[in-house]
Amino acid sequence: MRRRDRQNVFSQIRQSFRFGLSAFKYSKRAVQLVWKTSPILTAIVAILTGIAGLLPAGIAYLGKLIIDSVVTAASSGTGPQTALMYVGFEAIAVMMLTLCQRGLSVCQSLLRVLLGQTVNELILEKALTLSLSHFEDSEVYDKMTRARREASSRPLSFVNRTFGLVQETLGLVAYSGLLLQFSGWVVGVLAIAAIPPFLAETKFAGAAFRVFKRRSPETREQIYLETLIAREDYAKEVQLYQLGPVFLNRYRNIFHRLYQEDRNLTLRRGFWGYVLGLLSSLAFYGTYAWIAIAAISGGITLGDMTMYLMVFRQGQSSFSATLSAIGGMYEDNLYLSNLYEFLEQEIPLAEGSANQGPIPQDGVRFQNVSFTYPDATQPALTDITFHLKPGEKLALVGQNGSGKTTLIKLLTRLYEPSSGQILLDGLELREWDINHLRQRIGVIFQDFVRYQFLVGENIGVGDVDSLEDETRWKTAAEKGMAEPFIQTLPQGFYTQLGRWFKSGTELSGGQWQKIGLSRAFMRIKADILVLDEPTSAMDAEAEFEIFERFRRLAKDRMVLLISHRFSTVRMADTIIVLEAGKLIESGTHSELMQAEGRYAKLFTLQAAGYQ
Ligand SMILES: Nc1ncnc2c1ncn2[C@@H]1O[C@H](COP(=O)(O)OP(=O)(O)OP(=O)(O)O)[C@@H](O)[C@H]1O
Questions:
Q1: Residue 225: its pLDDT value, please?
Q2: DSSP code for 526
Q3: ipTM reported for the complex, 2 dp
Q4: Å from CA of 351 to ligand 1 middle
């Protein structure tokens, strides 16, 4: 072999071993996780694994003792006691092995259930700490989706395989110990014949690993298409626009593309597995012949021969089990790396701890605030400055995409400004204790959540401390104009909403919005109320009345309203007009009308439409 070739082979072997070792990267953590889930079950599994690993070698040794004592008894004419005693021992050993295996499978089943729950809880707890920007980051979202998808199976499968590997390795050590009595060469042959299949397995497992990783966008697209086809909230549009077959086709095409790749890899893996497996068989039969000759020539006893052959055969099957365990561990490893990457996703620490600001009655100030979404090229807001005093009602006006919702997201600290400052009572938002800050703000977004809960709970979520307080539901529903229609529902406040659960009722868009508004009225401790187009599905009259109520009922509170209806907007104390992320006008309705700028133009345009 040329020097270059030799170097290549060595570097390939080195690479394979490094890759082999990397399969264990998460073993420690996976075992810790399982241990945390149930120390007792984990300890039992570990002990049983050890016993199940060593017992087969013991059984093989007892087999040898049986044959040797039978041969001795037959040739010397002594009684069968010794042979029978060994038969008894072997029977006990086999029973113990069966018990161990059964115990292992019972413990593993229990662990699987517990571990699934532990991992799901870890994922959900982590999800609660993510910021909105994390949810909007496709990579993080992807990690979370995949982590959740296989949460209940992968960690245990990984741990089972790790334990399985330990078990097989223990077996291999024990077999090698027995075989060494015959010849060190046999052990050498066993090991050398195993190297080619090992190299092939790691090479193909590596390829499978890379394919898996590369495909994650396609997998995500598949999950998305599944959702579109199978979820009730999309069903309406998918059916009416006859999109089903198109989506299914896309789904199918992705599968076929992936399958092609999978099939090629599986075929190549199978072919090489078979060819290299033949090498092991050759080695086995070569050694078989060698052992047989040794027995014929009287070098070893018949019992020895039986034991060596059994041990050799079992050693081989242990080895192939080890190989497939390593192959499977790569896949699990990928999952675990995903899980841990997700669980270790850095969350910026909530910095602030303040519960009050230096100027208690100062309200909210935006000072030269600019903001660009992560990965966006254009800023969504540029240099915004305004002051909202306690009790003041402020309306935000602007075309679609002008930055109104973004401004609310900054005020509620779902995002941090890229530059400039937002102050509440004279203190920057980031200095405030985040929980305290959130308690002071009540927001109803245009896409507020329609929980598939009871009507009352849908209102109650506005104040988590009074989630189930019926009296509070009623007061809030009256203020949000939802009470009259709730009375007509089959079980009033106890009517189940949505279609996911039994006997659920669906509401109209406007009725849902009244529920949303009532939710805002639950937030009695909040002194800043934000209404981001919560009334768009209501008729103009209802919207007018709602805002009128807000003015009356939220007299001392700051209200920030986003609406495209100028009849409502004009009631605000101050109106801010945004255009392409910039504040272009601000003032009262009459001031802005007098100025004859953008607001006046839009107002006149809309008023003309109503005439
Ligand atoms: N999560 C996001 N990531 C990146 N860009 C975003 C995101 N949300 C909004 N944008 C962009 O920021 C700009 C402002 O959007 P915003 O939702 O604040 O507008 P808006 O005034 O509330 O519009 P509308 O009246 O349609 O509700 C738009 O150009 C939009 O494309």
A1: 92
A2: -
A3: 0.97
A4: 27
